[in-house]
Every structure is written in structure tokens, then in C-alpha cells.
Known about the structure:
Radius of gyration: 23 Å
Mean pLDDT: 92
Order of helices and strands: HHHHHHHHHHHHHHH
Distance between the termini: 53 Å
Strand content: under 5%
Amino acid sequence: PTNxxxxxxxxxxDVLQGQNDAARKRLETAIAADPRNHFARMALAELRQRTxxxxxxxxxxxxxxxxxxxxxxxxxxQLINLLLAKRQYKDALSAAQxxxxxxxGNLIVLDAVGRAQMEAGDVEQAITTFRQIAGNSRSSALPHxxxxxxxxxxxxxxxxEAALRKALELEPDLVEAQNGLVDLMVTGxxxxxxxxxxxxxxxxxxxxxxxxxxxxxMHLRTGATDAALAVYKRALAVPxxxxxxxxxxxxxxxxxxxxx
Length: 260
């Protein structure tokens, strides 16, 4: 079929059956039928990357896709992520800067720029970029998590902690921020402060999972699995508790059994 949706579905089946060449041919046929379909080209690039094609080949597919669809953010992000994954940090930064020039003010693109700057070692510029994103997207926790990552790398633990606290203020259930804060405070020997913070969160939002997840995470980080299980059992007794707590309790039980 030349319809991309159908070709994509069949190519997915081919991949599951280990028939990568057949999947490639289907996508190439779809591209030949609709040369400006950037989704088909992105799918081909992803397939070739997953099957360990040479970097230059995959990059070439994406560069051509960007030329055909310069206003689409997807191909640009895919190229940047490819180059970051292959540790081509300067090239990734160049691609990110090109994306910003084509789409000024796009926060998704700016996030890619910040990640590329960080990996390229341009720490101060990365901090500036993520602060800019945070200022323009006041409800998003992600730029604060990114800032915390940078601050940890450069040894600014207090700044990292403040950034993660801000991230959790915006998105209390963000697991990445929860885990980051637990790890940071436990390694910084701030377990009493972390426990107090978790208790305060539980008091403020008794039916939410976040405070219990942080308290249990602290115990898990210090090897006290039984104490973590006790936290979740206490949480499960709260009427109307978020369903996420049951899942966290189950995962902790699995962990305990594996370590038994």
C-alpha cells in the first residue's frame, strides 16, 4: 500500500517478525508515493537507526526531511536527539541552533538547545536557556528538572535542590523530580529534612501519592525496604487515596521479593 498509515502499520509488523528489510521497502515505497510526507521519512530514519545503519545515512534522511518540511518540529528534534545519542554534541548544538532560527520562541526546540548546550559543556548557556524556558512556561516543571541536572553536575547542590522543589511545587507527581530530590537529599545526608517535607506534603494533600512516594523513596534509597512498604500500607488505608499508591506498593513488593 502507498498510504503511509497502512504502510507504517505493516512495517511495524515486519519489524516484530524480524523482517527489517521488508519494513524498509514498505516505507521507501510510501515515500516514493508521497515524497513530501515527513512522517514517512522520520519513520524510515528511526528504522534505520534501530537497525544500526551508519550515522551519516540516518542523518542524511533527516536533513533531507528538514529541507522538505522546514516548519515541522519533529524532524528537527529527531535529528538533534540522534546526534546527542551518538555523542556528536557540537553537531547536535548546531542543529538545535538552526531549529531555533527557524522556529524562534518554540519551547520544545529551546529545550533541545539547552540539552545540547549542556552536553557540549556550555553550562552557563544551558542554565540561561532553561531559565528562559522556565520564565516562558511557568506551569511546566521540566525546565526546573533540567536546571537541577546541570546544577548537580557542577556541584551546586543547594541550587539543584531548590530547582527540584520548584519542579514538585508545579507538578507534585513528577516521578523524575521526586527521585531526583530523594537522591540528592539522601546523599547530602538530609534525611530528617526530607522526611519532614514528605510528612508536610502528606498533611497538605492526604489523598495524593507524592508525599508517600517521597517518604518511601527515601527508605528505599537507604535500603530500608520494610519501612518503605509500611509507608505504602499506611497510605493505602487513607480513604480516597490515589490509585498510583497501589502500583507503587506492588512495585516495592516485587523489589523486596527479588532482594530476598
